[in-house]
C-alpha cells in the first residue's frame, strides 16, 4: 500500500510539473493570416482569416498545437477563396464558418470532422460538389442552402441527422448519395431543388419531415426505404411531379400518391423466407 501511494504521488507531481512546464496561456492570438484561440486543453480554434489567398490549406497544427475547430464565421464572406482544404485534425466546422464565400468552388473536408454546424456553407454560390466524409454524424440547419451551382452531394456513412433546410434551394442539385446510417431527413431539406430527378431514401431512414422534397419540379422517381412506415405525398413531396414510386417494404402506407404514378412493391416473401427470419 505504501508503495502504491508513493507511485501515485510521483505521478501527480509529474503531471503538475508537466502542466507548469507547458506554459499554456489560453486566449486569442495572431498566427500569420489567422486569428486563433488556444484553449487550456492546448487546442486551437480558427477564429478569422485576414488573408487574400485563393487556395487555402488550413494547417493541422500551429507551432505544435492542434487545430481542432473552425469557429463561427471564421471565413464568412471571404470572396477571394476559391478552394479550401480542411485538415484531418479538425472535428467541427462552426456556424456560418464559410457563409457566402461567393467564389468558393472546391472544399475538401478532413476525415475527423464530426459536425457541420448551421449555415456553414450557406450561399456558397460557386460550389459545385461536396463529399461528406464518413466521420460526420450531423449536418445542421441550412448548412448548404442556397448553393445555387451545387450539382452533387455525397453524404457519408456515419451521418445520422440532416438538419432543417440543409440543402434548401440548391437549384442545380442533380445527384444525392445517402449513407447507410442516416435516420432523419428533416423538414425542407431538399425543398426547391429543381434539378433533382430521382432520389433513393435508404433503408436506415425512419423519419422524413414535412416538405423535405417539396417543389422539386423535376423529381419523377422516388425509392422509399423499408423503415419508413407512412408517406404522405401532399406534405413530404408537395408539388413534386413523382411518376414512379419504388417501395422496399410492402407495409408502407402511402397517402395522396400522385394520380397515375407507377407503384412498385417488393415481391411477397415465401413461407420459408418468413420462417428463416424468425430463426
Explain the overall architecture.
The protein has one domain: Leucine-rich repeat, LRR (right-handed beta-alpha superhelix), CATH 3.80.10. β5 and β6 form a beta hairpin. The N terminus is likely disordered. It is of the alpha/beta class and 279 residues long.
Fourth-level CATH superfamily: Ribonuclease Inhibitor
- Identify the CATH class: Alpha Beta
Indicate the overall shape. elongated
Main beta sheet: strand number and arrangement?
Answer: 11 strands, mixed
Radius of gyration: 24 Å
The average pLDDT value, as a whole number, equals 91
Low-confidence stretches: 1-21
Beta-strand content estimate: 25-35%
Topology, number of strands: 23
By DSSP (H or I, 4+ residues per run), the number of helices equals 3
Number of structurally distinct domains? 1
Helix content: 10-25%
- CATH architecture assignment name: Alpha-Beta Horseshoe
Counting helices, strands and paired strands, the structural category is alpha/beta
What is the element string, with H for helices and E for strands? HEEEEEEEEEEEEEEEEEEEEHEEEH
CATH topology: Leucine-rich repeat, LRR (right-handed beta-alpha superhelix)
For the record, give the distance between the C-alpha atoms at the N and C termini, rounded to a whole number: 54 Å
Amino acid at each position: 500500500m505504501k508503495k502504491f501511494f508513493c507511485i501515485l504521488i510521483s505521478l501527480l507531481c509529474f503531471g503538475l510539473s508537466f502542466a507548469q512546464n507547458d506554459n499554456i496561456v489560453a486566449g486569442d492570438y495572431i498566427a500569420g493570416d489567422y486569428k486563433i484561440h488556444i484553449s487550456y486543453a492546448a487546442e486551437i480554434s480558427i477564429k478569422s482569416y485576414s488573408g487574400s489567398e485563393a487556395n487555402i490549406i488550413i494547417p493541422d497544427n500551429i507551432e505544435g498545437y492542434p487545430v481542432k475547430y473552425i469557429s463561427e464565421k471564421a471565413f464568412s464572406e471571404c470572396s477571394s477563396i476559391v478552394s479550401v482544404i480542411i485538415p484531418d485534425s479538425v472535428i467541427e466546422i462552426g456556424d456560418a464558418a464559410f457563409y457566402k464565400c461567393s467564389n468558393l468552388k472546391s472544399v475538401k473536408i478532413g476525415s475527423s470532422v464530426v459536425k457541420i454546424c448551421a449555415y456553414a456553407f450557406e450561399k456558397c454560390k460557386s460550389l459545385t460538389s461536396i463529399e461528406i466524409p464518413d466521420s460526420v454524424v450531423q449536418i445542421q440547419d441550412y448548412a448548404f442552402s442556397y448553393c445555387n451551382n451545387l450539382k452533387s452531394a455525397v453524404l457519408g456513412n456515419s451521418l445520422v441527422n440532416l438538419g432543417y433546410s440543409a440543402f434548401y434551394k440548391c437549384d442545380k442539385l442533380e445527384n444525392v448519395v445517402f449513407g447507410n446510417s442516416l435516420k432523419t431527413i428533416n423538414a425542407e431539406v431538399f425543398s426547391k431543388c429543381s434539378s433533382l430527378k430521382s432520389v433513393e431514401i435508404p433503408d436506415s431512414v425512419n423519419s422524413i419531415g414535412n416538405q423535405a422534397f417539396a417543389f422539386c419540379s423535376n423529381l419523377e422517381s422516388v425509392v422509399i426505404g423499408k423503415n419508413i412506415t407512412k408517406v404522405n405525398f401532399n406534405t413530404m413531396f408537395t408539388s413534386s411531379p413523382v411518376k414512379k414510386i419504388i417501395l422496399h417494404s410492402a407495409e408502407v402506407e402511402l397517402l395522396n400518391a400522385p394520380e397515375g404514378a407507377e407503384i412498385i412493391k417488393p415481391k411477397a416473401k415465401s413461407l420459408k423466407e418468413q420462417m428463416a427470419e424468425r430463426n
